[in-house]
Amino acid sequence: MSDEVWRLLTLFDYNTRVVFFGTTILGITAGVVGALMQFRKQSLAGDIVSHAALPGIALAYLIGEALEPGSGRSLWRLLLGATISGIAGLALASFVSRYSRIKDDAALALVLGLFFGAGVVLLSAIQVIPGGNAAGLGDLIFGTAASMSVADVWVVGGLGLIILLIVLAVLKELVVVAFDVEFSRAQGFPVGQLDLLLSLLVTLTTVAGLQSVGLLLVVALLIIPAAAARFWTNNVSQLLILAVCIGGCSCGLGVLISALLPKLATGAVIVLTGTVMFGVSLLCGTQRGLWPEWQAQRRLKQRIGEDDLLRACFEAVETKEGLQQTWQDITQAQLPVDQIGQFRRWTLAELNQRIASARRKGLLRYDSEGNLRFTKTGASSARQAVRNHRLWEWFLIEHADIAPELVDRTADRIEHVIDPTMIDELSHLLQRHGRSIVLPESPHPLQEKLPPDPSHEVKV
Amino acid sequence: MLTEILQQLATWNSLDTGIVVTAILVAMSCALPGCFLVLRKQALLGDALTHGVLPAIVTAQLGLSLCTSLGWLTAAQADAARPVVLMIAAAIAGIGLGLLAESLQQGGRVEPGAALGIVFVSLFALGLLLIRLFADGLHLDPGCVLYGQLESVAMRPWWGPQFPVAAVTAGCVWLTGMVLLASCYHPLLICTFDPQHAQLQGARPRLMANLLLAYTSVAIVVAFESVGSILVVAMIVVPPCTALLLTDRLWSMQLVAQTLAAISVVIGHAAAIGLAGPVCSRLGYPQVTSVSTAGSIAMAAGGLFLLVLLLAPQRGLARKLYDRWVLGVRIAKEDLLGLLYRCEERGQPVSLRLARSIVQSSGHVSQLAVTVALRRVFQQQLATASSDLLVLTDRGRSQAQVLVRGHRLWEAYLAEHLRLGDARMHTDASRAEHFLDPDLHQRLASELDHPELDPHGQTIPPAIDGK
Hints:
By secondary structure, chain A is an all-alpha fold.
């Protein structure tokens, strides 16, 4: 058994090697073409093409048999038939959606049903014709990469390679058209012809994939790699490269796995390998993945909590000792813990949790007598948080005409996300209005319990 | 050929009736939610669901056979419970698929088509894998799900005559669908066309969308059992699309779609057993006596669609082409009359050939339309040809007068109010003259204080009394 596995993994057998490389080339091609389709938001076109190819395959077989008995099974003829009827399907769909009130998606689904029905009718006739049963056209429906003949792989792999070369030759134009049709028209690109070329490429890719993954699943080769790659990057060329890698890997791995476990359907294994890669990308992708996004959100939440705590501590001291005093040296002050909790309406548990986390980060500390105090870093962070908050408050009051009683809430939300450049701009702006920017006082009473101080009134 | 077809059809027996009844009920149950899917621009969801419910069906089957092998259920009980269990599994799977695709789309920001594609393709692959793995414990093979076993519908005695069992299930599903449709008609209607408005009205679009998904999945499962998935895809989309070309109301769309679904089943089956044999033997394949009924039903539905697309009374392509042709001929005729009037005004009679080439050179009408228009002009005695020169008759002159009046009034109006240049004014008026009626002439004239001359200094002919 292990010997067999070893032979397989090292691609010792000529047959395995050929199938492996042929299918991998196919995956690579489908990755690029699928990415282009995704840019155009037409991911499902491949599904329609693959279903619409069925009557073409059956007709090609029948014609082949009629012309030259015994040659109907020749793969390139079947693929030619598939290509023609796939293109015809796409053409019919665009005709219907253009000249009637049927929408795009319904037109595509309609063509799918109609062509597939026709294909099944033809197949059911072929089954009865002598020799037809052995034709194994059914293989094209469910896919059998592992048992492909070497000659077939050469056809499929060659086709994949040709498509890949064509795509690489006009990649720039295709990408531009996919993103911005108007711009590319203005640039003088032949938009209509490029569109046609892309449809042809999709059809050819789909058709090339029929043999290995089957017509029901071949669309997966087009959709999954591009969608998975999207989680890792926002850059087109990186996305294309990643889609190629994911497409190639899922095809190659799928072939190996299904060669190890011959009971499993190859097409299904290839698709599920791709699905697993998509799942991993969905979870871990650096750009849009769920885990990194969740992490980022958690970090933001933590920072907000921290800022809130530090500002609450600062303001508690400020109400007791006055702004000037607090601003200069706050590390000496004892922080009134119970007052802070009351002030922010936090429960004791919440407050303790926040304090513990701030202590872990070295922002707060307990001194020898058990009083809570700022550390040096904590003091400067607190000063920063208070300054951000107040600058924004003053900005709202002076430039957005918002009442001082209302600015606190809004500033609460925005203070955590304004970046240093914004702070600089704000302080310049407020400096021109003659307000102290190093040390802005709060525009509103810090604690609701305190009587309103007339000096805080704002002159408009 | 005809006699052969009739001979083939003469073999119609109770089995065929059973097949047709089952397929009609299934097709109608599929067309029912299909109308909503087409209107909601989710037609591809039908295709996705047919693939996506496969693992649910397989799992439910496996569960049932596990229960029997463990002795929890007897074989008869399992058989009886099967349809219900499968339907519940499919409904759950359908809603699950919808939710999964939507959360990929929103949470993962995947493009909608791709999200749907990934979900259904992966589920289908999973289903295939399960089938291969547990093939021995299942009476299910992929081909069967695809093509259905319509030709071997199980017939059981039912109140005397033989009746297909599958038809009973399908009938129940269809009735449930109709009851749901009747009871939720209004919320479904507003949720389909305007979800935001529906939300405001308290119609719960979320619930309706899930209901639609669940019902579609149930219909699909019932269809799998009897007619296979191809027919489902076709029946969900094709009859509703055909109906959409014929009607403007949701209820009439439902009615038309379901009727069309039933008609295509009858035509499809008749073609499969009657037409296929003779046609194939003509083509040199005498072995083929019948073809897949499911496939040919799909083709029949598609054929009906194409027919309607061409021939629909209001929106058919043929009607559009015909309208365009009629308009072309009318424009050519009017251009011709206008030309003759102007020539008469200048006292320069024009030859037939010259008139033809002048009208054609305006570029709005085809050569054929001009020929037909000329013939009309002579037939209706609007002009006569004397020694190759065209001369207006009195009737022709009065028609031309109305036309030229419209043209010059419009020019005067454009000059007065929009200050267009001469060339621009003329082309615009030559286009507008065909669409101005005497009432509008009157209004234009009174707006402009009944002018005598147009901006080029030509007389505006007076209105004809009695018009």
